[in-house]
């Protein structure tokens, strides 16, 4: 009984320390929205004490998420119960959730940090929400008139496997049959890159990467991240390590990874033969030591532009 009381007291202390009882998480924010504009937007729900927009720590570009702290829990409740119309800013419907204690903070305080929950959240966002207002009966009636839907499953899977991966993910929204077949079509996806995929206002994030790799990661032999590294954090290494156990070639050029995240990757991706770490300025000799210890088949390591490597 005393132990339970201590746990409750600890949770209350955490809430007080981080203002979790008055703080919300805001996602899907347009990259054109400034911190001042976002603060003014949420002021219609109540008094805003502080608004923090998360930015890439190297290039200082917004990552499309923020934390808003209200002056009272009443104001927070009003924001959480807002309608879709009230939460639309700059043409985007923002996601508003209760803020939670960071998993990494818990890890620092002595508990076990577990990152796979990111994949669970992605599956809910990418798959479940797409069908929240979906009328399968109407779609079935429409598809019954389409010749392509009369093809057998194997033929449709073959066709879908030839569609570029970003458009293939959109095919999952057509109907439940196409959702299942589109996900089965990834089995021939041996490599993936992000060249010319995003426009200048977009970019590859940890969540977007996870939504791709949760579908095809187990089949990948080659992964090239060099075309869109600016919005990725070192948590992306946890995502790759979790979903891509068969990787042989990976290009991580320009990513802000550390020795610890490189160790996480190499502990799971032990089949690596080639890795590119160009301009990965936070990787040092310690990270390379873990790389060579964990990946016995490694043949090629590109360290161009990395000044932290001394060879000692």
From TrEMBL:
Alphabetized InterPro entries for the sequence: Leu-rich_rpt_Cys-con_subtyp (IPR006553), LRR_dom_sf (IPR032675), Nucleotide-bd_a/b_plait_sf (IPR012677), RBD_domain_sf (IPR035979), RRM_dom (IPR000504)
Domain of life from the UniProt record: Eukaryota
Residue stretches making up the RRM domain: 22-101
SUPFAM superfamilies according to UniProt: RNA-binding domain, RBD, RNI-like
GO molecular function annotation: RNA binding
Keyword annotations of the record: RNA-binding
Protein name: RRM domain-containing protein
């Amino acid at each position: 009984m005393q132990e339970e009381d201590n746990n409750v007291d600890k949770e209350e202390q955490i809430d007080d320390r981080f203002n979790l009882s008055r703080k919300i998480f805001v996602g899907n924010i347009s990259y054109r929205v400034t911190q001042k504009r976002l603060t003014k937007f949420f002021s219609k729900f109540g008094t805003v004490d502080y608004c923090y927009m998360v930015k890439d720590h190297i290039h200082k570009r917004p990552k499309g998420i923020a934390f808003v702290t209200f002056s009272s829990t009443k104001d927070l409740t009003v924001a959480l119960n807002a309608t879709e119309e009230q939460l639309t800013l700059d043409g985007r419907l923002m996601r508003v959730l209760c803020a939670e204690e960071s998993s990494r903070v818990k890890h620092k305080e002595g508990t076990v940090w577990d990152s796979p929950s990111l994949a669970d959240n992605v599956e809910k966002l990418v798959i479940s929400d797409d069908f929240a207002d979906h009328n399968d009966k109407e779609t079935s009636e429409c598809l019954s008139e389409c010749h392509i839907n009369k093809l057998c499953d194997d033929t449709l899977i073959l066709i879908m496997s030839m569609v570029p991966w970003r458009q293939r993910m959109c095919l999952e929204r057509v109907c439940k049959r196409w959702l299942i077949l589109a996900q089965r079509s990834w089995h021939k996806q041996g490599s993936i890159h992000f060249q010319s995929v995003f426009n200048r206002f977009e970019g590859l994030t940890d969540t977007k990467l996870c939504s791709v790799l949760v579908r095809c990661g187990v089949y990948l032999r080659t992964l090239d991240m060099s075309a869109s590294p600016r919005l990725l954090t070192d948590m992306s290494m946890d995502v790759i390590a979790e979903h891509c156990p068969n990787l042989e070639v990976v290009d991580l050029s320009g990513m802000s990874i550390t020795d610890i995240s490189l160790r996480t990757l190499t502990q799971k991706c032990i089949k690596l033969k080639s890795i590119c770490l160009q301009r990965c300025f936070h990787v040092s000799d310690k990270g390379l030591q873990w790389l060579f210890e964990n990946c016995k088949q490694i043949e090629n390591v590109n360290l161009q532009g990395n000044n932290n490597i001394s060879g000692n």
